[in-house]
Amino acid sequence: MVVLNNRFSLARPKTRLAVWGMILFSVSVHAQLAVNEFNSKRGFTAENGDDVDWIEVFNYSSDSVYLADYFLSDNPDNLDKWQFPNTYLGSQEIITICASGRDNSSFPNHWEALVLANQIWKYWNGSSPPTNYNDWNQLGYNDQSWNSGQGGIGYGDNDDNTTIAATPSILMRKEFQIVDIQDITHLLFHADYDDGFIAYLNGVEIMRSDNFASATPAYNEFTTVDKEAVLYSGGIPESQLFDTEAVQDLLLSGTNVLAVRVHNASANSSDMSSNFYLSAGIASTNFSYQNIPSWIQTPLILPHADFKLSHGETICISDSNEALLDSVYIPYDISRSISKGRLPDGTGNWCYFNAPSPNQSNSQNTCYSGITEIPALDLASGWYSAAQQVAITSPVNTTSYYTTNGDVPDRNDTEVNGPIYIYGTSVLSVRTFSDVGQKLPSAVVDRTYIIDEENHGLPVVSIITTENHLWDWNSGIYVMGPNASANYPYFGSNFWEPWSRKSRMEFFDSSKTKQFEAVFDLEIHGGWSRAEPQKSFRIDAKSKYTGDVEYPLIERKSHITSFNNFNLRNGGQHSLFDRIQDAVMSRLSEGTNIDRMGYQACIVYLNGAYWGLYGIREKFDEHYIESNHGVDKDAVQLLNREGALVGDASHFLESHQIITNTSTADPNFVEILSSRFNLENYIDYFVFETYIQNRDWMGIDWELNNIKLWRQDTLDATWRYMMYDTDFAFGLYGGNIYQDYIDKARNPSYPNQHSQIFDHILDNADFKCRFTNRYDDLINTTFQTDHFNAVTDELKSELVPAIPDHIAAWSSQMGPYSYTNWLNAVNGIKTYNSSRIATARQHLNQSLSLQGQHIVDLDVFPSTAGHVKLNSIMPELPWDGVYHGACPVAAKAIPSHGFLFSHWYSTATPYNNAVQDSIEVALSANTTLVAHFDTCKNVVDATIEQSERMLKATVSIAVSNPSYEWLYNGTLVSTDSVIYNPLDGNYQLTVRFDSCEIQSETFVVNQGDYGIHLFPNPAVEALTVQFLMGQQENLSLGIYNTAGQLVWETTYSQFLGQFNGTIDVSDFARDLYILRITTPSQAYAEKFILVD
Model-level pTM? Predict the structure, then answer.
């Protein structure tokens, strides 16, 4: 029987020339399956959106093949690594295996509908919730009192079969039967709705719209924005795919229920739509349900092997007897755009294809026998003081062509016929083509030559890309294009499109040393700064090209050595002025709990043209979280203003609801808050954003913007905010120091869930004081003018040598227009901060009713005896700072080594002479706190006391967690508090605790004869042995009976110090024994008796 699966149908072949390559496989005479095409550099998009390696397998026999009898592997020594799926592959048919490392042999033969929108549904649209409302979406719920009607259900506006009266929401239920759950591989849910919905399968939420303000909306709650249905106008509804594992978790054999709640946007809404579809991927050829609608575009789902491919491996197909049917070596010259395959399918020669065709016949491909070798250039990329010439050597039987504008060379470009002269800064791109046979052209060799220009000690990024990628009027990403609006920021321009273009790069470090090359996707990056002549770029280092950039791009984050992507930022809205404000804010936040983007100043060249100063910036995405926090990028929930970027937003929505619905007087309020948000991060983030007065944030002046937060997708993980794009802080375009941004963040022009949480939690007294004290800590340290100015000047100094070149290149088109103009802009940041400190304190006091400001003076005595930690900071002493009266500050005395805390001196009577090292100080006036310390030796003594057969350590005062060191004749012999059975000699004890280290006087033991201490003696089950070894030697312990026979022995290599051990003698005969201890220099013996 031949089974043809329409998913494996082949394109009609075309006749073409086939060229034999080297065949790197062996074939059994009875083989039916063969590797047909593969790629180890990904190039196939799986159903979950991942870009994966792939292997195409072809059945070249005249019969169908039962695949489960065969195995696929990337290792000849492990042939049964992955078993093919339990299905048939017809004659001359193809199956493609995703080598993703994600084992899944289940894939659909076809799709069927489990639930259709136009079936009869039960629905509830009453003015109040139905009976047992909490269970309405569960299987088994009694919905007999509900209405019945054909879906969709709505207001009768051309896409409804059942018309209802206006209502805030409706509840819908549809029961359906599952015949064989094992025959279902995937589920596909579609939602066509107006305005919002949440869908449940057997009580489990499977999908929701992103316009709910809470995780569990009230029965009559409206959505935050409206949403129009699309199916009636020819659109394709939103959908969600569920894999095999999810199918087993969600579905039941027999009866199931799909339940959906649909909500309107407002009481005045003129429409409401509710059309929902649930489809199933069926593994077998059986047809058990209903046809799916014709508009549903089912995803291509292929089997996944539990391994990935790498060059140098061998792909193998074998049968159940481990007989090898086919194998092929994976060469090193494969790329995402070049695969290797057979032509004709299954039995032909091995070829290189420059148009990979996964899951399709190779008949439309051209067979290339190999890839041409690259040319050799005798001049390396780099800096030169004068014009240069480049000699290019092409391999035998090849011709090289070159370009100097970034284009990938082809045969229509200039042929290499001698040296090439480089008169000024330029890129040179060379490619070689074979003159004989059928080979693919070589990879492009790029060189960047910078002539009589300087890098000024900065890294240099040389971007090389096809000229039309940038400048073509219709498709170039840098130009306005035909659809641009006339007004700034020119919406509709090409540079506003989410376009990316394949490009190349050479990267040079600050010493002008080339560190790497890369192939990547180039995009225009940023908001309104896209409209500036000098635009920002995004570098997307995709796996389909050369993969992640493996180099520490950012000096101050040198521990991050791998980048999936990064941005080259032009300075954003400050590109016209200081160019560094966002970098200043990012660097200021070092040492805080804020997630921040690293910054590295650099110079960019674009196709050999100097493109000016940029900042290398991290991108806030799941890769950032993995690099900076060590959290797997696939185990992340990441949100922005619009909802989930990665994972889902349900935990945040639930957090918003829980926190805002919890009374701020609840004694567990902060505990509840901290179970949802990382408090240290939350406080630092909101302190920074409100202090710097970021207008483009929190919906303050415009709609919600520049909000990102993330959590690990685990049970107890909490949310962390990420600070970025602070261009509109510090008064840009109309702000001033007198605006209270605490109040603005609590009650912005565009309220949102983030502002609602912030507003609510500041009414809790505990959180308010935590927030206040940390705010004061940061104003007193991070934002103090000396520190703030030092950070700003450090960034300024990185640009000072390079800024004249940048101004010369861009001042005719955009600012800064002169060096003086730039310096004034940088100094303006410092001036604004200097003025901001006072108003920030005033706003904090006014917004939170903090009862005024007081100066706290800190010091210690003696001056080098210790430190004082105040709240979250430990300043250099003497020191003073300003704090607010309504919130006590926490002071902790921390002694230096060799000192102990004695007491506090304070101008505030309640704390003067306080002996606790940690105190909470309520401020009603300016307050001085001086921590007094004393030397350990003045306070504590350590002595050695001798009692029968032991030396004991004694400390004159009670101490916590002491550690001990015993020296015997100058040699360390024990770290216990006791020496058992000491030898004659000199002993000295060192005791360490807290910040103290004290030593005893030398203690002399002189007892004469020395013997082993055994007890109890007589013994019954266990014998304790105690002795001291004063020098390091090999040691043997043996027990002998009265006949002189050795009955037990143990040995120690190079033993030194205290022996205090127990020997199990419970199985020994009751008798007299001798314990002998022997070293190369000494021997001891002691008798003992065992009794019942």
Answer: 0.83
Report residue 31's pLDDT band, with 50, 70 and 90 as the boundaries. low
Q: Single out the residue of 722, 718, 693, 685 nearest to residue 706, CA to CA.
A: 722
In one-letter notation, the amino acid at residue 1081 is: S
Whether omega before 880 lies within 30 degrees of 0, making that bond cis, reads no
1033 C-beta neighbours (distance < 10 Å), count: 16
Residue 687, classed as helix, strand or coil, is helix
Note whether 202 and 257 are within 8 A (CB).
yes
DSSP string spanning 110-130?
EEEEEE-TTSEEEEE--SSPP
> Helix (H, G, I), strand (E, B), or coil: what is residue 555?
helix
DSSP assignments along 412-480, one per residue: TSEEP-S-EEE-SSEEEEEEEEESSSSEEPPPPEEEEEEES---TT--EEEEE--HHHHH-TTT-TTS-
Q: Which helix (H) or strand (E) holds 674?
A: helix 669-674
742-753 pLDDT, tens digit per residue, is 999 999 999 999
Alpha-carbon separation of residue 548 from 189, 337, 516, 543 (angstroms): 34, 17, 11, 7
β-strand partners of 319: 70
Cβ atoms of 604 and 576 closer than 8 Å: no
Buried b / exposed e over 862-873, threshold 16 CB at 10 Å, is: eeebbbbbbbbb
Question: What DSSP designation does 395 have?
Answer: P
Interatomic CA distance for residues 563 and 559, integer angstroms:
12
Q: At what angle do helices 819-848 and 679-691 cross, to 10 degrees?
A: 120
Residue type, 82: W
Gyration radius (Cα) of the chain, Å:
38
Residues 6+ apart with CB under 8 A from 89: 3, 5, 8, 33, 57, 59, 64, 65, 67, 95
- Looking only at the bridges linking them, the beta strands covering 853-861 and 927-935 are parallel
Q: Is the pLDDT of residue 361 over 90?
A: yes
SS3 (DSSP) at 936? helix
Q: 3-state class of 871 per DSSP?
A: coil
Which tens digits make up the pLDDT trace of 146-170? 999 999 999 987 788 999 999 999 9
Q: What is the pLDDT of residues 575-612, one digit of tens each?
A: 999 999 999 999 999 999 999 999 999 999 999 999 99
951-968 average pLDDT score = 94
Average pLDDT of the chain is 94
pLDDT in tens, 208-255: 998 988 888 999 999 988 999 999 989 999 999 999 999 999 999 999
pLDDT at 734: 86
The mean pLDDT of 811-829, rounded to a whole number, is 96
The pLDDT score that the predictor gives to residue 27 is 36
Q: CA dist 122 to 119, 144, 176, 188, Å?
A: 10, 8, 12, 22
**pLDDT at res. 1008:** 85
Per-residue CA distances from 186 to 95, 161, 173, 298, 582 (Å): 18, 29, 21, 11, 46
Q: How, if at all, do strands 153-154 and 349-353 pair?
A: unpaired
pLDDT at 68 over 50: yes
Q: What is the pLDDT of residues 444-492, one digit of tens each?
A: 999 999 999 999 999 999 999 999 999 999 999 999 999 999 999 999 9
Q: What secondary structure, in 3-state letters, does 767-822 show?
A: HHHHHHHHHHHHHHCCCCHHHHHHHHHHHHHHHCCCHHHHHHHHCCCCCCCCHHHH
Q: For 216-225, b where at least 16 C-beta lie within 10 A, e where not — what string? A: ebebebbbbe
Residue 889 parent element (H or E): strand 889-895
